[in-house]
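Researcher: Let's continue the batch. This sequence belongs to EGFL6 protein, and it's 197 residues. Same format as the previous ones, please.
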Amino acid sequence: AICGHGCKYGECVGPNKCKCFPGFTGKKCNQDLNECGLKPRPCEHRCMNTHGNYKCYCPNGYMLMPDGSCASSRTCAMVNCQYGCEEVNGEVHCLCPSGGLQLGPNGRTCIDIDECSTGKAACSYNRRCINTFGSYYCKCRLGYELKYIRGHYDCVDVNECVTDTHRCSPHADCLNTEGAFKCKCKQGYRGSGFDCA
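Model: Same format as before. Here are the structure tokens for EGFL6 protein:
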């Protein structure tokens, strides 16, 4: 089977037909599926959509049980957690529904962890990190574009000299480099390459 457009989060099962991995949708399997909007809803209580997945959590006054259900807890109600809580050995701890969130100084609300600035993100050299609430994603750096090559998506160098997106002087030669380009004045001209006289 050949899928000319590629299957970003899925596999090619027929001519231009993708079978998406769980949590993804679309003709190219490149869109996140909002499981919280499905019927029946996957959570009997509160639901938070994440990239390719979802998290269930409890409303105030309830705590998340090991089987994923919510049980009433007067102690949880007294702590007033933002996303529900758990009770361990008689002690109440507030919970955050994602690994990209952490408990704030008040111990009740969840604050975002910026994976991009803390170095927890794993993006390749040709991608830059974009922080989101509770997570992050990797986007192509400037000078690179997302293309489907040899069975998967990758960020490849944009040849600004071919695409004519350089700003070289008409009296300069454009030289493509990895992620960028250079301008060199032609013989008989001097200057920065952007301006040649």
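Researcher: Any comment?
Model: The CA atoms of residues 135 and 141 lie 19 Å apart.
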